[in-house]
Amino acid sequence: MSRWKRLLLFLSIMGPGIITANIDNDASGITTYSVAGARFGYTLLWTLIPTTVALVVIQEMVARMGAVTGKGLSDLIRENYGVRATFFMMVALFVANLGTTVSNFAGWAASMEILGLSKYIIVPLGATAVWLLVTKGSYRTVERILLAACLLYFGYVISGFMAHPSWPGVLKGTFMPTVKWNAEYVYITIAIIGTTITPWMQFYLQSSIAEKGVRKAEYKATRLDVVLGCSITDIIAFFIIVTCATTLFPAGIRIAKASEAAYALRPLAGQYASLIFAVSLANASLLGAIIVPLATAYYICEAMGWERGVNKTFREAPQFMWIYTIIIVASALLILLPGAPLVFLMVFSAVLNGLLLPFVLIYALSLVNNRKLMGEYVNRGYYNYISWGTVAVIIVLTGFLIVTSLAPLRI
Amino acid sequence: MSFYGEVFASEIMRKPVLDPKGEEIGRVKDFVIVKGEQLPKVSALVIDKRKKVFLLPWKDLNIFNKRIISSRVYGDNLQAYDESREEDLLIVRDILDKQIVDVNGARVVRVNDIKLEGLNTNAVLVAVDVGVRGIMRRLGVERGGEDLFRLFQKTLPYSLISWNYLQPLEPKLTRIALTVPRQILSELHPADIAEIISSVSQKEGVSFFNNLAVETAAEALSELEPNVQKDIINRMDSDKASNIIEMMPPDEAADILSDLPAEKAKEILESIEKEEAEDIQELLGHEEDTAGGLMTNVFIACSPEMTVREASERLKVQAKEVETVYYIYVLDAEEKLLGIASLRELLLAESDCIMADIMETNLKTVSPGDDEMDVAAIISKYNLLAIPVVDENGYMHGIVTVDDIIDILLPPAAKRKRRKV
User: Fold this and answer.
1) How far is B415 from chain A (nearest CA, A)?
2) Mean of all residue pLDDT scores within chain A
3) Residues facing B167 on adjacent strands
C-alpha cells in the first residue's frame, strides 16, 4: 500500500477512539487534574505516562473486540454470561452514570456561574438543550455537534501556554517520577487513573467501533486511532495540570472544584486564560451530559433487548427514551434542589464505578481471550500477561480508591 | 416419555435430575434440539455433576415437568458430553440471550426465555419470551414483578413470539428454521428489512441478508445507507453479489459499484449480463451529485410514428423493468428527445392516433452536468414525477425520478443508517 492510500484508510476509520478519549475528560476528570496541579504542582505529571499506557492496553482490547465481533460489550456480556450478571451490571452502571451526569451538570452550572449566569437558568436550559438534541434531532446533527465540541478541548492547551509554565520544571515532573508517601498524594494519583479509566467508556468505545463497521482487515488503522485518542486525552490532562501547577500551586491556592481553578486563574494568568478555562469546562461538562446518559440508555437497552436509537420516538423505543430522560431530569433537579446530597452522590458514584470496573475489565479480558468469538485475534502470549497485569494493578488501585472514599481522609 | 403442558427453559435450568432410586445424577444445564416435524424438539438434556457434563437422551427420561425431572437410567450409565460440540444445537448456548428477528413485528429482539410444550410425547420449542416477564423469570422475581404491576393495576404482559415468526440471525440456527418464516421474510417490506439489518451487527446482518430471495435482497439493499451497502456487498461472494446488483435499477447499482474497491466492482460488472452492465457502466461516468449521477437510463421510449395502441403494448411489456411508467418518451431514430406523453394522455387518446400527435413538445429537461439541487428545484416547481436528462445536442441520456430526489432532500428518514450512539 502506498503511503497516501494508508493515510486515506486511516482517516476513514479514525474517530471512535479520538472521540471516546475526548469525552473521557469530562467534568470530574478536569476537576481531578486541576486539583492535582494546584495541590502538588508538576510533581504528579509523571503519573500520566503509566496512565496512558494502561489506557492504551485496555482500550485496544476493547476496540479489537468491537472490530472482530461487530458487537457491543454489553451485547457480548449478555450473550456469554446470561441475564443475572448483565442485569446487576446494568443497574450499577445506571446509578454510577447518574452520578457522573450530576457531576457534569454541576460542572456546567459552575462554569457558567463564572460568566455570571445563574444556575437556575443555565441548568434547565442546558438540560433541555441536551434532551431536545437527542430526542428531536437527527443523528447527523448530534454527530456534527459532538465533533465540533471535541475541538474546543484544545482550549486547555492554549490556557496551558498562556500560563507561561517553566518548561524545565514541567519536563522534570513528567520524566522523573517522584513519589511522596503522604495519603493525599497517593489518593490523587489513584484518582487520576480512576477518572481516566471508567467502566462506561469501555462500553462506549466498543459500540462505536462496532457500529462504525470497522473490519478486521482495517483493524490496524483503528489501533492507531485508539493510541492517538488515548494520547490526546492525556495531553489535555497534561495541560490542565500544567496550567494549575504553574499558577495556583506557587500561590498556595488550594481548590476542590474545577470552576474554582477558573476563578483563581483570573488574577494569576489573566482574564483570557481564565475565560478559556471556564468555557472549555462548560464544553466538556455539556458534552459529558450528552454522551453519558445516551450511552447508558444505549447499553442497557442493548443488553436487555429493547428497541433503541436516536432516531426513534417515545412510542417506538419507550425504555430507551425514558432511561435517557430520567437520567437528565434527575441530574438537573439534583443540582437545583437546595440541600441535595450532591457530594454524597458523586462519591457514591465514584465508588460504584470503582466496584464496577473490575467486573467490566475481567469480563472484557475473558471475552477477548475467547477463541470462539475472537478466533486468531485473541491476546497473544506475552501481551496477555501485560493486560492481566494492567487489569490487576488497576483493580488494586481502584480498591484503594473505594476504601479511601468511604473513609474520608483527614488532612 | 410423555410430557404435558408447558414449561419455560429457565424453570428447568439448574433443576436436579433424579435416577429411579431418587438419587441426584446431576443438574440440567442445557437442551440439545433437533429439527422436528413442525417445530424443533428437544432430543436430549445436557446435565452436569461436579463439573462433569453428561448427555441424557429424551427417551431415557421418566418424568419431565417443572417440579420433577427423573430418568430411567442410573448415573453410571450416562454418556459423557463435550459441550463445545459445534454440530449440536443447544438452547442455552446458542439461542438464549441471543438476538433474533421477529418477522411479524419486523424488529430485532433478544431471547429472554424459551417456552417448551408437550406435543406427541416430545417437548417442542413453541415460542420465545422477549419481554420483561422473561427477564424477571430469569432473575427469579416473576411473582414479585406481577405483584408490583398489580400495585399499579396493570398486568405484567406476556411477550411471547411464536417460533413460526422468528428468523435466526446466526447461520447455525437456520438448520432448524422452518419453511414458514422464509415466506414471511420475503413478505416483509424492504424498508423494514433494511431497518433490521441496520440494527444488528455486520456479521449477523450479512447472514440475514444471505437468507433473502434475490429480488427482496435487491430492494432491501437500495434502502440502506451507502456505507452499509458497501459492507454487505463486500462481504458477499461476487456471484451472489452480481445477481443482486443485476436486479437493481441501474442508477442504484452504479451508486453501489462506485463505492466498492475497483477490483471488486470490476469482478461484479463482468459477471452481470452484458446489456445491464453497459447501462451501469454508462452511469458510472457521471459525477455523483449531478443529474447524470442520479439518473437511470431505463425508461419507456417510442418513435413518433408509433400508434397509441403499439405504445401501450410496449408499455405493458416494459413496465416491469422501468422505474416509472408515468411518462413515455418519444425519441427519433438518433435518440434525440422529441416529446413526452404521460400515461394519462396515453389512456385518453384514441388508439389509432400516432404518438407525434399526442405528445407534449414544450419540454422541461436538465442536462447531465446539472447540480442535484437544481434538478430537485425544477421537479418540484413543475410537479413532475420524472425529468428527462438531455445533453446540449438534444440526445436523451436518461431520466431522474422523483424518488431519487426525495432521497436527497430527506436523507435521514429515507435511508437506514447503521445504529449509532
Assistant:
1) 12
2) 82
3) B101
- CA B393-B398-B403 angle, to 5 degrees, is 140
Chain A residues near residue B201 by CB distance under 8 angstroms = 69-71, 75, 210
CATH second-level architecture of B188-285?
Alpha Horseshoe (1.25)
Question: What pLDDT band is residue A411 in, cutting at 50, 70 and 90?
Answer: very low
Nearest to A309 among B112, B203, B419 (CB): B419
Domain segments of chain B as ranges: 188-285, 301-409
What's the whole-model pTM score? 0.75
Enter the ipTM: 0.72
Q: What is the pLDDT of residue B172?
A: 62
Q: Are B117 and B126 in contact (CB under 8 A)?
A: yes
Residues in contact with B102: Cβ distance below 8 Å, sequence separation at least 6, in sequence order: B108, B109, B130, B161, B165, B166
Residues (pLDDT < 70) of chain B are: 1-2, 105, 168-186, 411-421
Q: How many CB atoms lie within 10 A of CB B38?
A: 12
Q: Looking at the complex, report in whole angstroms how far the Cα of residue A345 sits from the nearest Cα belonging to chain B.
A: 26
Cβ atoms of A47 and A192 within 8 Å: the answer is: yes
What φ, ψ does residue B272 adopt, rounded to 5°?
Answer: -85, 150
Residue A291 pLDDT: 85
CA B372/CA B8 separation, integer angstroms: 57
Interface residue B111 vs chain A (CB under 8 A):
yes
Asked if the Cβ–Cβ distance from B231 to A305 is below 8 Å, we say no
Classified as helix, coil or strand, A53 is helix
Which CATH number is B301-409 given? 3.10.580.10
